[in-house]
Specification:
By secondary structure, this protein is α/β, with parallel strands linked by helices. Helix content is 36%, strand content 23%. α3 packs across α4, α3 runs parallel beside α5 and α5 runs parallel beside α6.
């Protein structure tokens, strides 16, 4: 009978390997992620980020190596792992024909919660969606849809959540909304493994950063530790110009305020 791993980090990966045909995607990935923080997994397209997430969430099996999530073996105890996690993919898994509340109630029923309606109402309030609760999701903005998607993944309060490129395709303002949501998750003690191609996203959100390259984790540490791997930059004194994101948000928010007034 399989047993759980001794207590420790909620995500523990040792020597994972995965190939598709003759293509080796993961070549001995090892990584440990501490409780209650955000770990950003970086890598170019095809580096194996999504493959690793799919193994950890029990969607596919590794060819070799071991992985434990919340103390459970992903290969030997997949049902225990699934009860401990939630996965948010690159595209919002919401039903456009249902309202926001109906989407949440449906997931709560699938997770066999005693009070699906109460759980839905709490998450709607937590993610600032109460006013839009009874609207069809088809009318939601991109940021609202993504917030609802993450809210659905939190039904039942799983201790570990996987976010696979959660801001892909979002506009700058919606992207910032998701960032705030991720910060709140970590602040409540949830362990978050985030895959992203956006380096600024990792800088803003992650407590630790792991870089996946050619099938292996080539570096794992805090942003400061990674920065120390390169020679210090030459200091130049220049006047800081606003970024394009600063300009975009200032203009769009100003126009919105004028419309409201």
């Amino acid at each position: 009978m399989p047993t759980s791993h001794p207590p420790g980090a909620p995500i523990q990966i040792r020597g994972l390997e995965k190939s598709y045909g003759g293509l080796s995607v993961l070549r001995g990935v090892s990584l440990e992620i501490a409780s209650g923080g955000v770990c950003a997994l970086l890598g170019s397209n095809g580096a194996g980020k999504t493959t690793l997430i799919r193994i950890l969430s029990t969607l596919i099996a590794a060819d070799a190596g071991t992985a434990f999530v919340n103390g459970f073996d992903v290969a030997a105890q997949p049902h225990r792992v699934r009860a401990s996690i939630s996965l948010t993919g690159q595209f919002a898994a919401v039903d456009d024909m249902l309202s926001g509340r109906e989407n949440l109630v449906l997931v709560a029923k699938l997770r066999h919660l005693r009070d699906p309606g109460g759980s839905a109402d709490q998450l709607l309030a937590r993610f600032s969606l109460t006013e839009a609760a009874d609207r069809r999701v088809a009318t939601y903005s991109g940021g609202m849809r993504r917030r609802l998607d993450i809210a659905m993944s939190l039904v039942g309060d799983p201790p570990v959540i996987f976010l696979d490129e959660p801001t892909t395709g979002l506009d700058p303002e919606a992207r910032l909304e998701v960032w705030q949501t991720v910060r709140e998750l970590a602040g409540r003690g949830t362990t978050v493994l985030l895959t992203t191609q956006y380096l600024d996203e990792a800088e803003h959100l992650a407590d630790r950063i792991a870089i996946l390259h050619q099938g292996r984790i080539v570096v794992d540490g805090t942003l400061e530790e990674l920065q120390q791997m390169l020679p210090p930059a030459e200091v130049e004194y220049v006047r800081k110009q606003p970024s394009l994101e600063d300009v975009f948000l200032a203009l769009t928010r100003r126009d919105s305020d004028q419309e409201i007034s």
